[in-house]
Design a protein that fits this description.
The chain is an alpha+beta fold. The chain contains 13 helices and seven strands.
Length: 329
Amino acid sequence: MITVVKMQFGSHLYGTSTPASDFDFKAVHVPDGRSILLGRVKEVVNNHRSKAHGEKTQAGEVEDESFALHRYLELLSEGQTVALDMLFAPPSAWIGDASGIWTIIRANRTRLLTKKSAAFVGYCRTQANKYGIKGSRVAAARAARDLFKTKLEELGTTAKINEIQEDVAALCHFQEHTSIVWLPSHKDGPDVAHLECCNKKMPFTNTIKHGYELYERVFNEYGQRALAAETGVGIDWKALSHAVRVGNEALELFRTGNITFPLPTAARILDIKLGRLPYDEVAAEIEGLLAAVEEAGMSSSLPERADKDFIDDLVCRVYTESVNAREMP
């Protein structure tokens, strides 16, 4: 296995480390020729302590992860944040010298970037949905719950959502985060209408009772999180700081084709991470970033998709050299 590049990652790259931070390293490697020939390449190689579910890393602990070259380039072409952060990490973050392969990758970065960096937008939206950051989400979940509750009492437990299509359409007209979407059915039939509210979908072919139960759960979850936000209890400030971080990274990438490390906003992100700012202020910031990132993505001059031929040619050449260089038995 040949190391293409290894670098310091995480908070030490971003400029947001604290005495409680662990040490995170990422790398890209070329698998050995034997593994390539036998089809036994490990796409990701981890070298860190096994932890129980939910267990956090300890201060000073080392997390070490390396991606096979082809896997890394796949992640990069998908716009995954881990791959993008690695691509733009400055030489000062590298551990030792990078290989000529990494020089080629960085020199051709414009062929590997894409405006469809769904991971950026997706992470911000996930955190916003998780905490019910915008009050209108709570209102939308409540309105959906109340509609289904009323119709359940009127029509009974076996009535289908199809029977109240006009009411559902009216709900979508007046509520944010609520719409009707058409999705393929599980069978070879026509697409099926779904109510989508707060990213939770319910097919019209289901019963009103099922709709009520789903949006009752959604409303209760948002209500609990809203209460936690008011009291400051139960908020994952680290996760919210990551949402702000990736939002700002996405804006810079879409607007300039670059991501700067350490982050220009590192001091503010650290304040969020440590819970020093009011929750409402952070919530509003994430909402603003979501809108700005989506707008910047649509107007960005980055290509629609990565250059697949370039990726395939590079992997083929490098892996062929690895195979040819292997020691014969």
